[in-house]
Write a structure and sequence with these properties.
The chain is 26% helix and 30% strand. By secondary structure, it is an alpha+beta fold. It has two domains: 133 residues, FAD/NAD(P)-binding domain, CATH 3.50.50; 97 residues, Polyamine Oxidase, Chain A, domain 2, CATH 3.90.660.10.
């Protein structure tokens, strides 16, 4: 088959990897500048900052088997075992060079086409489906795997005559506003370099240097869902001032060099579908919807959902 995967986050990359291993032709389209989705890393001067997912856990044998080679080669490392004083004993894993390095490793060898916005899926002429790209081109495929957030998925599949279940259409997402802050010296976030819910406004504060991904002092600050919703439409300059104020307790005696703001519109799904993926019924060719709104809104859930989507096509 020729399979098109929409979205180069971990769900899409996992589905593509499994399908290519089974000798199918796979093309992955993503609107971003690079693969990874919320496995996002930014470099500001000498600093490296994870600004989406900060870590992941391993809770299933299947995901553990997929991560094991990356632990062996050192790409993935155990960051800590919790963020309280004594932790909880459960490993949190991070990635050398930033979380995006794992996505880039997974994308190596795949046909991943970034800066390619898919805006519609329609019935094809020679094959089951035709995927419309924002450069005016159309690519036909025997099967489709869609892994982008559900509101975007809904708009893509409507032209194909595919109707998502009402409970999927109604899934909403919490928003997250992140501040990326480079410093002149070490901040005051203590070991292991991360703090969950440290204030009424913040859900997470990370010292990227103490975490082990940055050679220069730099903080990533995530505003919580309520704060992000209330301030979503604020000007970027105003957000920078507000989050600099909220972050002041964690910068220590260091001065701020630069602050950049990143908005995650679809940060965390508020509900999760009961199955690891959804299969469109009564269509010309397979169309499967997967992603972190299915097997769980975490790194592991995205990977397992992508694997489930591939398994449907390989059955």
């Amino acid at each position: 088959m020729h399979v098109i995967v929409v979205g180069a986050g971990l769900a899409g990359l996992t589905a593509a990897t499994d399908l290519v291993a089974a000798r199918h032709q796979v093309t992955v389209f993503d609107k971003g500048r690079g693969p990874g989705g919320r496995m996002a890393t930014r470099r500001i001067g000498a600093a490296t900052l994870d600004h989406g997912a900060q870590f992941f856990t391993v809770r299933s044998d299947e995901f553990g088997a997929r991560i094991a080679p990356h632990l062996t080669n050192g790409l993935v490392f155990e960051w800590c075992r919790g963020f309280s004083t004594n932790g909880d004993g459960y490993p949190r894993y991070a990635v050398r060079g930033g979380m995006n390095a794992l996505a880039k490793t997974m994308a190596a060898g795949l046909d991943v086409r970034c800066d390619s916005l898919v805006f519609a899926i329609r019935e094809g002429v020679d094959k089951a489906w035709s995927v419309m790209i924002d450069d005016g081109s159309a690519v036909e495929a025997d099967a489709i795997v869609v892994t982008c957030p559900l509101p975007q998925t809904y708009s893509l599949v409507v032209p194909a005559g595919v109707t998502l279940p009402e409970s999927l259409v109604r899934v909403d997402y919490d928003r997250t506003i992140a501040a990326l802050i480079t410093l002149t010296g070490p901040g005051s976030v203590q070991e292991p370099g991360g703090m969950q819910n440290p204030t009424d406004a913040l859900s997470f504060v990370v010292d990227n240097q103490r975490k082990g991904v940055s050679s220069a002092p730099a903080l990533t600050v995530h505003a919580n869902a309520d704060w992000s919703q209330r301030h979503w439409d604020d000007a970027l300059a105003d957000l920078a001032v507000a989050l600099a104020h909220e972050s002041a307790p964690f910068t220590g005696s260091a001065a701020t060099i630069e602050i950049q703001i990143k908005k995650w519109r679809f940060a965390t799904p508020r509900s999760v579908w009961s199955e690891p993926c959804w299969i469109a019924p009564d269509v010309r060719g397979p169309l499967i919807v997967a992603g972190d709104a299915f097997a769980g809104p975490k790194v592991e859930g995205a990977v397992l959902s992508g694997a489930a989507a591939a398994a449907v096509l390989l059955a």
